[in-house]
């Protein structure tokens, strides 16, 4: 998944345009005590509200109460500073349902309507909107309209901004565009235009158009012989024809639109179109091109050398194609011109590039760099990623070897993906503390190469991986390991240490070994515990362990803390618990342990807390508990099947 691609670009650009055109008459928040709202228009708005279902009370400021009488102060309503007419109605993201009342016809001075991201229950776009002739901005994006786009919209000769995208609408022809001479922004994305054979002729009449999006519009094929005559008078800067894979003459269309523009195209979005073959020279003379998105197509061959001279290009996304070639040569070619100075996003992921990693430090403006899923190999040279603005780097699923690249020159780095390579870290740590750092779900590859770690804290880092992915084979020779509060799952491998020198070291003799994997989803038996004798702390609580507790605790002479609570353990409490002379805390709560408390446990005289509640323990409560545990502070035996006289127990 490529999280850094500029795929929300249109939304970002469009919001800027909305701000530009939509708020020039905003008067909301004006400090005044007089009621500015015109009564006829206030009543029209209340009638409009009556036809809506406002589940979340987003229009609670609209009403007849004395403190609500000025409609110019209502949420989403804006009035002209001098005439007091309602000029803007901005109800986007209000989660409204229902129908649009014709009472809006009373608002003849409306210049701006935004009803996007509501639910009009697949009603048709109202035809009467075409009578609001002062409208400059009409935004109905993703508002669950359906049916044909009314041709009456063509009456809105002052319209600057039109967005009907994301609805279940259609248009059999686009003749209604012919009169929209002032239109600067048009978004008909996801509108069915499959019968609009005159779409290109209609677009050619938009003399003021700056941004045009016809994404996923099922656009009908256009004959090369019927292309409209070009006069190059339009200031078109953005063209989005993505998700129109049935079209076969994309490069011809791009060339036509580039000549149609008097200022030069700045944004070209052609992703998801199944465009095969090499990248042609159609972009070579586009000096103003800033963003080029061609991802998820069938492009083949390499990247043309002329790209190096595209001095305005900031975003280049060629991911998920069939491009190939030696990546070193490709990037050397691209660094031969002015491109390297401005390029901010480069995504070549999911292609067939091969070869050694190039020196990317020439592209010092890069913030996002993706080479995921290619066939790049070898080590990454020192200084090859000297990129001070880099925020996202994805080199995963290649064949890189050697040390992890030095990223100390990228203080802004926020996302790093190096998985599925064979990097070797250039260091061996003794202590590692990543507690509460939110990492990726899987264990970092470099962590698996650490063989000398003694102290490890991976608690609460978001790991969702199998236990064996870290503890596979032989585990590191740790003294302290805390991997609690994660999402680890699977069974513990039946591991053993691989260093006899470590096991006899002074550190182990003094402190013992601590293992805390509590609050995970680990299952299987506890037999792995028997392979180590030097346990000092064991917290395996709140997991899915099952089976019997192994009777090998006679070897754990240093064990001071044992928690097996909240698992699925069954069988008897082992007699070998009686050898735990240093044990101070014992938690066995909420399992299915049966039989009684073994008499051998009277030897555990250092116990300060025993919690065996919520099991199936039976028999008399041992009378020797009070005599044998002089340090005991907490004793919990509830929710078992004990019987007998409790007065027999006396805790000194």
Can you walk through the features of this model?
The chain is α/β, with parallel strands linked by helices. Among the domains are: 275-426, Alpha-Beta Horseshoe (Leucine-rich repeat, LRR (right-handed beta-alpha superhelix)); 431-648, Ribonuclease Inhibitor (Leucine-rich repeat, LRR (right-handed beta-alpha superhelix)). It contains eleven helices and 42 strands. The protein has a 15-stranded mixed beta sheet, with helices on one face. A nine-stranded parallel beta sheet has the order 27-28-29-31-33-35-37-39-41, with no helix packed on it. Strands 30-32-34-36-38-40-42 form a seven-stranded parallel beta sheet, with no helix packed on it. The chain is flat, with a radius of gyration of 35 Å. The model is unreliable at 1-32 and 497-509 (pLDDT under 50).
Summarize the structure.
Helix content is 12%, strand content 22%.
